[in-house]
Design goal:
The structure holds two protein chains of two kinds.
Chain A: E1 2-4, E2 7-8, H1 12-15, H2 23-33, E3 38-40, H3 43-64, E4 69-70, E5 83-85, E6 91-93, H4 99-108, E7 114-115, H5 117-132, H6 135-141, E8 146-147, E9 164-165, E10 174-178, E11 191-198, E12 201-204, E13 208-211, H7 212-220, E14 232-233, E15 236-237, H8 242-261
Parallel strand pairs in A: 1-3, 4-7
Antiparallel strand pairs in A: 1-2, 5-6, 6-8, 9-15, 10-11, 10-14, 11-12, 12-13
Chain B: H1 12-20, H2 22-35, H3 37-44, H4 51-56, H5 58-63, H6 72-81, H7 88-95, H8 105-114, H9 124-139, H10 147-159, H11 165-172, H12 179-184, H13 192-202, H14 215-226, E1 230-232, E2 246-248, H15 250-255, E3 261-262, E4 265-266, H16 272-281, H17 286-302, H18 304-310, H19 315-325
Antiparallel strand pairs in B: 1-2, 3-4
Helix pairs in contact in B: 1-2, 2-3, 6-8, 8-9, 9-11, 17-18
Classes of the chains: A alpha+beta, B mainly alpha.
């Protein structure tokens, strides 16, 4: 169920503001039919989450098409016009370059980049936020992005690096396929970070867009000799703090809109 | 365990590298291989050669196509390095070598490790080779002898802001809580980066530290109390920014039974009465379970006979006794 300011929400009113087969509708239906309570301070906060989830999914699908290659950290590559490759294999936005430009370049010139699955998730989140926040605000929030799996994340989105238990899985969630018996010769396949795209499909960098069975089969084929435990999808999720981001958005973006209206 | 740098026990090629550097070694070897091929191969196949020297000469071994003349250990070592190499041609040539013999893989890996680890940090490719060697030694051969060196490497790399996540993964994959003591040693390091990393690897902020004890002493006390109940979670840096590598199995601690898991399942079965105790215990809030498990363990350590009566009492009563024992502070 969805609770807005301590009152249960009848979703019909809001449902009709989205197209019939839209992802927002699907998310609303899952939330409203759930036994768990999804609590918001306002309808706007809920709508912000729906929008950001939709953009996360869009950014994941676009990254799947970007030609960015799969590379372990020791072999990671980036476009050095915009990024500096750090000693640990991460990418740090070069001084004098806007974070928005650097993130967009990954999507425009994907073939110049190569990294592993967790860093790809961070790229997805930043791209999604760039689609939601006006560019200047995005650059103010994230003046110098450092991409390196779940490290060096700006506090406002650091929650994506934590996994938490949940009773409900929603499109746009970060999930993880764990491969406990991975062949140590291919350590990078100890697991696969993915974005839940809805419809039983997941995007994982290196795997592309696949269903769970295909990802598990692929990971199982990379297990060590004598392995007896299958790869599996963890029951926890990673999510940004949507409410905090929504409040930040309101505090940054609305005043300008109001100003324009005046 | 360290590379023996005593010049008398080193091969000629090692001596050239150590005394004159990688470039001079390659030049000298190139000249030799171009004119006295067999002599060059003989030097490579010297049993005393260090793995790092062989690795440095790989481009020249490739250029003079000496692969087939190498002894099986050297072939295997170079083939093991293939995946980390950026040079496509060398990778293709190494891939065409016959698959290595699994029976001698372990001794080759040990040699690669023993005569290579000191050169960690030479370049990204060599670091990746080392990561892989450690991962296989620990994961496949459950070799614990490498772990103290592995711990040192992790902290050394961290001090230099280099990549540590695969080494950390390999280190914890031994799935034996004793390694936490190796990490705890770094809590006493004068380097803040060591202490910070040790705290992260030990999840130290989640451990209630006794007052008036330093961090190291407090951790060891915590470890001593919980070591038999620690359960490896399998979490890693690919999954989360804050992996919890070990958790206390509260059920096991409450019943004072060692925690043994296999494939996510506890493999020690509980009796019907134990299951019944656990049923009520697991209805408590998490914080209550933490405290009651601790009390149970203390009573068990002090007097197992008293404990066997105590554990049979209703959980409500156990809580009451615990509260009395703690001067009313509990729950």
């Amino acid at each position: 169920m969805i609770i807005i300011a301590n009152n249960p929400l009848v979703i019909d009113s809001i449902l009709n503001t989205y197209p019939v087969y839209s992802i927002e509708r699907k998310i609303l239906q899952i939330m409203s039919q759930s036994n768990s309570a999804f609590r918001y301070d306002s309808v706007n906060q809920l709508k912000f989450e729906l929008r950001l989830r939709k953009e996360i999914i869009r950014a994941a699908r676009q990254l799947a098409q970007s030609r960015m290659s799969f590379k372990v950290f020791q072999q990671s590559i980036c476009n050095e016009d915009y990024w500096e490759r750090t000693r640990d294999g991460g990418f740090l936005v070069k001084r004098g370059v806007k974070s928005s430009t650097a993130i967009n370049d990954i999507y425009n010139n994907g073939y110049k980049y190569g990294t592993e699955c967790a860093t790809a998730m961070m790229i997805v989140y930043y791209k999604a936020l760039l689609s939601v926040f006006p560019e200047n605000d995005f650059n103010e929030l994230f003046p110098r992005i450092h991409l390196m799996n779940w490290h060096y994340i700006y506090p406002i989105i650091e929650d994506v690096g934590y996994m938490r238990n949940t009773e409900e899985y929603l499109p746009g969630d970060r999930r993880y396929f764990h491969n406990p018996d991975v062949d140590p010769e291919t350590i990078e396949f100890q697991g696969e970070n993915v974005i839940d795209l809805g419809d039983g499909l997941y995007y994982g960098h290196g795997m592309g867009i696949q269903n769970a069975q295909t990802i598990i089969r692929a990971l199982n084929s990379l297990r060590m000799e004598g392995a007896d435990e299958s790869a599996y999808l963890l029951d926890s999720v990673g999510r940004p703090d949507f409410k905090n981001l929504s409040d930040t958005y309101d505090s940054m973006v609305l005043p300008v809109s109001l100003l324009e209206a005046i | 365990m360290s590379t023996n740098n005593n010049n008398n026990s080193l091969s000629l090629l090692d001596r050239i590298r150590i005394n004159h550097g990688n470039q001079k070694l390659r030049e000298a070897f190139g000249k030799l291989a171009g004119t006295y091929r067999e002599r060059a191969v003989k030097l490579l196949n010297d049993n005393r050669i260090l793995f790092y020297t062989l690795y440095v000469l790989l481009p020249d071994i490739d250029a003079y196509n000496l692969y087939s003349l190498l002894n099986s250990r050297n072939k295997m070592a170079l083939k093991m390095s293939t995946k980390a190499l950026k040079d496509e041609n060398i990778r293709t040539n190494l891939n065409s070598l016959p698959k290595y013999d699994n029976r001698s893989l372990y001794s080759t890996l040990k040699w690669m490790f023993q005569t290579g680890y000191e050169k960690d940090g030479s370049d990204d490719e060599f670091d990746e080779v080392l990561d892989k060697i450690f991962a296989i030694l620990v994961r496949k051969y459950e070799d614990k002898t490498t772990l103290p060196i592995l711990a040192n490497m992790i902290f050394k790399r961290n001090r230099q802001d280099r990549y540590i996540h695969d080494l950390v993964w390999a280190f914890f994959e031994i799935k034996d809580p004793f390694i936490l003591e190796l990490v705890a040693d770094f809590l006493r390091s004068p380097d803040d980066k060591d202490v910070e990393l040790a705290c992260r690897l030990l999840n130290i902020e989640s451990i209630a530290m006794a007052k008036n004890m330093d961090r190291y002493e407090a951790y060891l006390a915590w470890f001593k109390e919980n070591r038999f109940f620690l359960h490896f979670t399998g979490e890693n840096y690919q999954l989360t920014s804050t992996p919890t590598f070990y958790r206390v199995d509260l059920d096991a601690k409450y019943l004072s039974k060692r925690s043994v898991y296999r494939n996510r399942k506890r493999i020690i079965s509980y009796s019907e009465s134990e299951k019944s105790h656990l049923k009520d215990f697991n209805e408590l809030e998490y914080e209550e379970r933490v405290v009651l498990a601790e009390i149970s363990h203390k009573i068990h350590n002090q007097n197992p006979r008293v404990w066997s009566d105590w554990i049979k009492s209703p959980v409500k009563e156990q809580k009451f006794i615990a509260k009395l024992g703690l001067g009313g502070d509990f729950l």
